[in-house]
What we know:
- This protein is 46% helix and 18% strand.
- It is built from 35 helices and 37 strands.
- A hairpin with a 5-residue loop joins β32 (861-862) and β33.
- It is elongated and about 115 Å long.
- It binds one RNA strand through β8, α10, α13, β26 and α25.
Amino acid sequence: MSTEFTADSFPNRFDYGESQDRIYQQWEETGCFSADENDTRPTFSIVIPPPNVTGALHLGHALNNTLQDVLIRLKRMQGFNTLWMPGTDHAGIATQAVVEKRLREEEGKTRHDLGREALVDRIWDWKGQYEKRILGQLKKMGCSCDWERTRFTLDDVCARAVRSTFFDLFRKEYIYRGKRLVNWDTFLQTAVSDDEVFHELVKGHFWHIRYPVIDPQPGEPTHVTVATTRPETMLGDTAVAVHPDPEAALQKSEAELQARLDSAPEKDREGLQAQLEEIQQRRETMLPQLILLRDMALDGRRVCLPLLDREIRLVADVWAKPEMGSGCVKITPAHDPNDYEVGLRQDLPMINILNPEGTLNGNAGDYRGLTIAQSRKRVVADLEEAGLLVEVEDREIDLAHSDRSKTPIEPYLADQWFVKMEQLAQSSMDAVTDGRVKIFPDRYAKGYLDWLSEKRDWPVSRQLWWGHQIPIWSQVCGSEQALTEAIDVLKKLPQMASGEMAYQVEISESASPAAEGDQGATEAGGYATIHVGIEAEVAELEDQLEQLGYRREQDVLDTWFSSALWPHSTLGWPEQTASLARFYPTSTLITSRDIITLWVARMVLMGINNMGEIPFEQVFIHPKILDGYGETMSKSKGNGVDPLDVIEKFGPDALRFGLAHLTTETQDVRMPVQFECPHCATLMDQTKKNRELPRVACKKCEGEFSTQWARSPEDQQLPRGPVVSERFEVARNFCNKLWNAARFALLNMEGYSPQEVTAAELAFEDRWLLSRLSSVTEKVTQSLEAYQYAEAARMLYDFAWDEFCSFYVEMAKSRLQAEDSQAVAQRVIAHCLDQLLRLLHPMIPFITEEVWRLMKQVAPVRGLRNPREATESIMLAEWPLPVPADHDPEIEAQFSQFQSVLGAIREIRSRQNIGPKEQIEFSVTCSEDVTSLLQPMEEFFQSMANARAVAWGPDVEPSTGCATVRRGDVDVYVDLKDFIDVSAEIERNQRLRDKMVAQIEGKEKKLTNENFVARAPEEVVQRERDGLVQLREEVVAIDKVLE
RNA sequence: GGGCAUAUAGCUCAGCUGGUCAGAGCACUGUGUUCACAUCGCAGGGGUCGCAGGUUCGAAUCCUGCUAUGCCCACCA
């Protein structure tokens, strides 16, 4: 036909190094990845979970993206108009933090040294570098994204969507400004997120302070005692709390302790016993006083805040634990998270006493201007002098520190922007409860719904420089009149009338200290702040506002705000683009479970808000990849694997197939990792110890290599030892097996001619393979569509290796040699290989593409029913459909009969150590039916087991001194003649017989159990009966041999 | 503290709605290289399915409790 291959011109391994870039480039050049918004076929679209530009992709990303690519390639072959939308995420704080860290390490500078603009420029440089790296990694993995559409959450298109959304929510008054306690870093003068706070035990004190009761009545205490680790915060106290039902609370904790004591191990008992006694004692000594104080609190009584002589409330609140300290607790709502909650519950004033740089402000009276440390000393000294300091205990304190400046964190009440979640959260819940959005596996829906049902408002402002700056301009108005005037001015702007602009008035008790600096006590009537939002970025209008005295909000938005818009912002929203109309809503989102709430839930609510429609129909949550110790992989632990290292060692297909093969529904993927020695390629298990070393010595060649921790110049000069996992070997071997099967097939295509093949022309093994192919096609398709990747991978692995290679190809060998039978065998093998390549292509795209291309040279037209010219690229080939006419359970059953007889012969060969070159003779006792089936297959016993059949049929009797194996109702005997250890064979049969007798007894017992016979289904009972009969026959058969 | 998972061969995992479900791969043992593939072929050994109860004629499979591990959320004056 056309070019023939020779064994020499066809390497026996697929060389990825040489081929993968070429193949990928061809895909790109021929536009295989491009989605067409004018194509009217049904669509299938996926948006990528945009990787953070903080660094390179790791194995978790590789998994995530492999699963997406498998799905998109499947759908593309199934004839959908597919879009896989790629892009990256600016990842707010994470990216700013890495760039700041480098700045500090390499130049010894802080971001304040650079200024906002310069820092943001640096981060853009970083982004450029890592985005390139990330996209490069995705391409190496074979991801078929539509690269021309690549977006970034901070690019102009996304920025416009963010701005438009923010304005819409602002106008609906879903966005508001409120106070919130943040972790304030007084050194960097910024809020830091919870993730960036570390806790450290430090030595401190517990000060017990007395607050005088105002106008104590006879019988009432004159003081309440409170204890604190931070006496200076008392300057911001606005209440003292006592439990509303101290008796019940004590009882409850006593009962809990008793319960714990009852089940506690011996070693913990002593401590628990002491605690229990303490509580019992409290009920005796303190309870009356606490009840009295509670009553006073309910009466609205007050205490005097020492030093400032301020009257503060006595409140009844559950936060005051009667089993702790004095049972009373001071409440500082503006400087403690728990007290803040109490403040909200009890409607207490919140007095901020700090300036942003950590000194005390005007609210602290005479202590104004002191640092926290100074004020603590002064406060303690003054209290002591006033005789109000009762006791000072030494105590270890769990103190929060800022990760970045290493200074203690101050809880600090600051202005923050919030999104009201009431309606938005509800819409997002409804989408899942009514099934418009389906989550797989469905157990993850629970977490999603639980989280949303709290409907907690979403704080969206971040005190960062990297991100979408909040598009709000604000101005504080000192008086009613100023406010009215300012609003009048606003209302005259044409943009206000046209709805491109909106404003909100916020009335607060105090201006934000963080934003406005130290303004001292509030003026009567509070502050009024006008917030103005503008729909689109219009420089003129923004300038105009600045001139009117408005100042733009400095904070940026939470990075998840832009991520939440991803499914529609990437398609051009708010422009009503053709792509948006075509590809929204997307089909499936594939992501990891830790961002179900942060991201998935928010995409749903923003999609509904902006588009009026859900963003995706299905969500698949895939497992996490853990290392051999069950720990999550991360760069900071040193156990992270770079997908490129795996690709380098095993090839991209092995990476993908390996990952898909591990993606089961219930389990996380545990993947022990190894260092690969760069000198001798030995794999060494990574231990918790060696993974933290800058250099490691190979256990075999003793050559040293560097790890990611290499810092010193000597270490860095050593060759790098990549981290890989031998879990990919299986997949690499599988690809090699496929390659060689293809190599064999293509080397035997000489004289191939495509032609329709009739059923009558097909050999037994052809019909068997076609039947199997049809079932596998059906099951693989179903599995992939149900996100059962591991199942699909396993089925294809077994089919390709065991059935196609080990049986079909072996059996086809002789036919391919013979002139008269060659043609049909070639057509069948070409067709089946063609179909197998298609089924495997989504998982292993490179090797299947290469084989496809080679196959096109010798067998361009393929197919048994309707031979057709193969497509140029396998990416464009049609996904196989099951062929009901090929499905033949009877032939599959018969074939397994053949397999078991073959297996029996091979087992005897191996058991008796008969060399492969020694021909043996065998006979088979079986029914006439089986005889007529297997006798024609004698040549396969010859070629696949070097065994010659001497007798078939129901009357065949074993000769003495033969080895036997029974499979089902077929007995196979091999005449041992002069080879062989006859006594060993007898011994073996004796053991086998004993085992069977035991089984027979078990079954007899079961069948004499009336309950079983009466209650179990008839078919189950029958199966037991049949089994018993068969076992008895087997024993008889063995006995014959043993004679 | 609340929630969600997981526990099956030395290792990594399958085993969907209870009765051919005790399996796969790696590792191990034996054996075999002109004839697609040693990244291979053929064969073999190895597990009372975390523990304790319960439901059932029958449980790796369903229920309860316990233990261990992981993850998410909350909290830690």
